[in-house]
């Protein structure tokens, strides 16, 4: 009897475990379907082509115009700028931390990077707003420091923990015999690092960069606080821009449920979802490549 | 230029870049401590905001953050740990498992503001919970799921296979084996991961923008279906939306949030180190 | 003598590698059957087929039948089977619990709740495993603090606590010093009055010391099985002779 009860209990628990196991799949599907449910009918009212390629985002004008090209360009400028800054810096820092730094310093630097990952994005945004933004304003002598450049710098900084720690893992995963073989041939450590370790760790580093970019595209609060949020197609780094994420965060509160504007924001969410889905998929593929080596 | 010399230069450059990455962290923390410390006193921490948030304290935001975070982790932890158990103990090497893993990776990559939209669509509107503590906590719970699953799975996989074999060889069922021979030994790792996920969630703003956060609500939530004030959102609005906000209390709010988050990180590190030192096998 | 375990035409494979080939063998009640042979000869795989532990391996495949007391074990509930067929592993695998908690781990999971009953059971099993005198003052101390030999006898006590009929030993002394080994061997001989024992060992001398009958495995096949003296003094097969006299392996 006790055994029978035990069997039933085990069975029930194992079913729950299985359901929890597939919960991740369920949630991914749920997220996408709710974005579509709320935003899908937007395309009955507005043309997909005009949505993606329209140059003007005037949701409140009459008739409203929902062209997200300026927002896509805004996000792109931020990603590009942040990437240019963060990728070389992040990879170099990862190299230094994993291959050069002595033990004590290594732990200290790693703790520093971890701490950066822990700082909430509003706090980073706030500090950027009170320090970096005025600095850029005076340094470039422009009317406002709320520019794409400020966003790029802040986000480069925020993508750093992702890029550094995943690159570091990739570098650490390079087998020792690679390094020892080259050392035995009389190569210096630095030569080994850029001729052997970097190429061997490349797939992992690419994954790190992809995930860093995913982080930048998805970041909302900090970018909203320092970029000025002007929905125009940017022509340079010293102008205000508005990203996809910031648009959702800033405007959702003002919309009427069920209106075109409301739906358009869900449609933007769906676009973001698809973009990050692709990026993460690619990153994951490269991560597996790195492991297989 | 000889190889030794170029190595020296290269290492110098690497060190400089690393410092360029790490030093700003200290700068952020220093500036917030320096400017914010004067704002912090008992009154600031324990009274309601007043005068359109320009004066008074941030008590409801602190309480709201704690409620929100605890509720979300209470929801996410059982699901996350069970998912990790499934992946580490039951899952076979098949398509389903691969899809689960890919879904977890994706869940981790979904932008936080998209979680906000999802929470709005599912919890606030579809399930009619409204903008409230519960909707926000559920949204955050799904968001922290990938971290809890990944770290718990990692913790489970460090428990030696032999523990499972011993238990099974005594005729103990599979679930009982996991419950009594595996889970207790994975607990420290699961705890560390959970605390880290909490600290991340505590600083999130975008997911609660449309699901839980109140702009200005000088009282404590009375039920799961009340709106709440939350520290990160509070910091966001007082630093961007309130004209003539005294900068002292903005920094003070930032400092409180920072302390809260760093304290949790520190706790996680202490837990990890403690159990590593006392590891029994 | 009554047959306790009957193995008919057993083949085991992990993925592509076959580790046991068409094995026929009988284990008698209350005997110690020794299984010797060089490494990778399928000894451990055979042993783990008897309590269905191989099934944990994702790519394990098995053909043929195993009967215990005339019942096909594949038709039995594996949990009940494993209760009847206990196992002592190659390395002393104490769980990171106290000494007494290790012993009563199984009974507790099987629903024994009474504290008194558990205490008595622990003492009885530790006595049977010849460990009681050495640990009675530190029952609540960490099991992992015991010596290797003590831990191995603790594992034995833990196995005894679920009241098995058969005990499988998988090279139980491979990590032990000669003194501890002697102690474990002594215990095994005492146990055969009540249990049926199957001992896989790399140590030919150990088989000659404790086993009633001995089987010689080579490359997954059973070469010879007979009374231990016969195997060691006048084996039928030349390969057996070469192995037991130490010419290979």
Secondary structure elements and pairings:
The complex is a heterotrimer of chains A (293), B (281) and C (249).
Chain A: H1 2-21, H2 23-39, H3 42-45, H4 48-53, E1 57-58, E2 65-66, H5 69-100, H6 103-118, H7 121-140, H8 148-172, H9 176-184, H10 189-218, H11 221-226, H12 244-251, H13 260-292
Antiparallel strand pairs in A: 1-2
Chain B: H1 3-36, H2 42-46, E1 49-50, E2 55-56, H3 59-90, H4 95-109, H5 112-126, H6 133-157, H7 161-169, H8 174-202, H9 206-209, H10 231-240, H11 247-277
Antiparallel strand pairs in B: 1-2
Helix pairs in contact in B: 1-11, 3-6, 3-8, 4-6, 5-6, 6-8, 7-8, 8-11, 10-11
Chain C: E1 3-14, E2 17-28, E3 32-36, H1 43-50, E4 60-68, E5 71-72, H2 78-84, E6 85-88, H3 99-103, H4 105-109, H5 115-128, H6 132-135, H7 148-160, E7 166-170, H8 178-191, E8 196-200, H9 204-210, E9 213-218, E10 221-227, H10 228-233, H11 238-244
Parallel strand pairs in C: 3-8, 3-9, 6-7, 7-8
Antiparallel strand pairs in C: 1-2, 1-4, 4-5, 9-10
Helix pairs in contact in C: 5-7, 7-8
Structure description:
- The complex is a heterotrimer of chains A (293), B (281) and C (249).
- Chain A is mainly alpha-helical and 293 residues long.
- Helices cover 77% and strands 1% of the residues of chain A.
- The longest helix of chain A has 33 residues, at 260-292.
- The model of chain A has no long low-confidence stretch (mean pLDDT 90).
- Chain B has 2 domains: 3-38; 40-277, MetI-like (MetI-like fold, Orthogonal Bundle).
- Chain B has a two-stranded antiparallel sheet with strand order 1-2.
- Chain B is globular, with a radius of gyration of 23 Å.
- The longest helix of chain C is centred in the middle third of the chain and has 14 residues, at 115-128.
- In chain C, helix 5 packs across helix 7 (148-160) and helix 7 packs parallel to helix 8.
- Chain C has 11 helices and 10 strands.
- With 249 residues, chain C is α/β, with parallel strands linked by helices.
- In chain C, the strands form 2 sheets. Chain C has a 6-stranded mixed sheet, sandwiched between helices. In chain C, strands 2-1-4-5 form a 4-stranded antiparallel sheet, covered by helices on one side.
- Chain C has one domain: P-loop containing nucleotide triphosphate hydrolases (Rossmann fold, 3-Layer(aba) Sandwich), CATH 3.40.50.
- The model of chain C has no long low-confidence stretch (mean pLDDT 92).
- The radius of gyration of chain C is 18 Å and the shape is globular.
- Chains in contact: A-B, B-C.
- At the A-B interface, helix 1, helix 2, helix 5, helix 6 and helix 7 of A face helix 1, helix 3, helix 4, helix 5 and helix 6 of B.
């Amino acid at each position: 009897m006790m055994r029978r009860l035990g069997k039933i209990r085990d069975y029930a628990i194992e079913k729950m475990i299985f359901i929890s196991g597939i919960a991740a799949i369920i949630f991914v599907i749920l997220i996408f379907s709710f974005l579509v449910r709320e935003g899908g009918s937007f395309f009955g009212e507005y043309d997909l082509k005009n949505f993606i390629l329209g140059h003007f985002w005037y949701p409140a004008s009459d008739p409203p115009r929902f062209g997200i090209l300026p927002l896509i360009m805004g996000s792109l400028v931020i990603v590009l700028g942040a990437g240019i800054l963060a990728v070389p810096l992040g990879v170099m820092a990862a190299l230094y931390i994993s291959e050069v730094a002595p033990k004590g310093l290594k732990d200290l630097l790693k703790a520093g990077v971890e701490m950066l990952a822990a700082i909430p994005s509003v706090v980073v945004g706030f500090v950027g707003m009170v320090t970096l933004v005025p600095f850029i304003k005076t340094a470039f002598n422009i009317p406002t420091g709320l520019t794409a450049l400020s966003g790029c710098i802040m986000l480069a900084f925020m993508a750093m923990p992702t890029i550094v720690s995943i690159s570091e893992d990739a570098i650490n995963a390079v087998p020792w015999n690679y390094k020892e073989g080259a050392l035995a041939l009389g190569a210096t450590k630095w030569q080994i690092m850029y001729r052997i370790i970097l190429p061997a760790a490349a797939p992992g580093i690419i994954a790190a960069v992809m995930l860093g970019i995913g982080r930048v595209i998805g970041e909302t609060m900090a970018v909203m606080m320092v970029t000025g949020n002007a929905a125009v197609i940017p022509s340079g780094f010293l102008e205000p821009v508005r990203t996809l994420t910031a648009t959702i965060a800033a405007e959702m509160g003002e919309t009427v449920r069920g209106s075109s504007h409301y739906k358009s924001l869900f449609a933007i969410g769906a676009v973001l979802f698809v973009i990050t889905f692709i990026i993460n998929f690619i990153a994951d593929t490269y991560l597996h490549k790195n492991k297989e080596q | 230029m000889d190889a030794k010399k170029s190595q020296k230069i290269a290492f110098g450059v690497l060190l400089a870049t690393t410092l360029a990455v790490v030093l700003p962290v200290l700068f952020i923390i220093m500036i917030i401590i320096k400017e914010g410390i004067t704002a912090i006193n008992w009154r600031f921490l324990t009274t309601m905001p007043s005068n359109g948030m320009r004066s008074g304290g941030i008590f409801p935001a602190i309480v709201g953050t704690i409620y929100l975070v605890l509720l979300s982790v209470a929801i996410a932890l059982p699901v996350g740990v069970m998912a990790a158990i499934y992946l580490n103990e039951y899952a076979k090497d098949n398509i389903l498992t691969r899809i689960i893993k890919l879904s977890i990776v994706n869940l981790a990559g979904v932008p936080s503001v998209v979680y906000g939209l999802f929470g709005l669509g599912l919890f606030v509107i579809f399930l009619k919970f409204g903008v409230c503590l519960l909707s926000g906590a559920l949204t955050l719970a799904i968001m922290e799921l990938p971290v809890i699953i990944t770290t718990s799975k990692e913790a489970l996989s460090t428990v030696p296979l032999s523990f499972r074999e011993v238990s099974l060889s005594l005729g103990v069922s599979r679930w009982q084996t996991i419950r009594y021979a595996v889970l207790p030994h994975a607990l420290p790792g699961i705890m560390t991961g959970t605390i880290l996920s909490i600290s991340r969630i505590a600083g999130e703003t975008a997911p609660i923008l449309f699901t839980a956060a109140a702009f200005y609500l000088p009282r404590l939530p009375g039920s799961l279906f009340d709106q709440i004030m939350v520290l990160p959102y509070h910091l966001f609005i007082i630093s961007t939306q309130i004209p003539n906000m005294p900068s002292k209390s903005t920094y003070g709010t930032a400092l409180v949030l920072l302390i809260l988050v760093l304290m949790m990180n520190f706790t996680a590190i202490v837990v990890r180190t403690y159990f590593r030192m006392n590891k029994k096998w | 003598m009554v047959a306790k375990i009957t193995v008919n035409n057993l083949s085991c494979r992990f993925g592509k590698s076959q580790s046991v080939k068409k094995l026929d063998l009988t284990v008698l009640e209350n005997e110690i059957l020794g299984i010797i042979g060089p490494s990778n000869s399928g000894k451990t795989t055979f042993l783990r087929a008897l309590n269905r532990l191989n099934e944990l391996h994702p790519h394990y495949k098995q053909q043929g039948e195993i009967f215990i007391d005339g019942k096909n074990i594949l038709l039995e509930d594996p949990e009940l089977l494993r209760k009847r067929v206990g196992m002592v592993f190659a390395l002393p695998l104490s769980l990171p619990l106290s000494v007494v908690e290790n012993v009563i781990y199984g009974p507790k999971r099987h629903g024994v709740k009474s504290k008194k009953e558990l205490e008595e059971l622990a003492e009885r099993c530790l006595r049977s495993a010849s460990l009681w005198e050495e640990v009675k003052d530190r029952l609540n101390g960490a099991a992992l603090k015991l010596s290797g030999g003590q831990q191995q006898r603790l594992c034995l006590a833990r196995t005894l606590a679920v009241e098995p009929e058969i005990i499988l030993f998988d090279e139980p002394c491979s990590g032990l010093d000669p003194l501890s080994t002697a102690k474990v061997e002594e215990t095994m001989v005492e146990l055969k009055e009540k249990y049926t024992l199957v001992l896989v060992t790399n140590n030919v001398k150990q088989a000659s010391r404790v086993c009633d009958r001995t089987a010689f495995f080579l490359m997954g096949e059973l070469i010879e099985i007979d009374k231990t003296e016969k195997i060691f003094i006048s084996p039928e097969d030349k390969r057996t002779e070469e192995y037991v006299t130490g010419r290979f392996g």
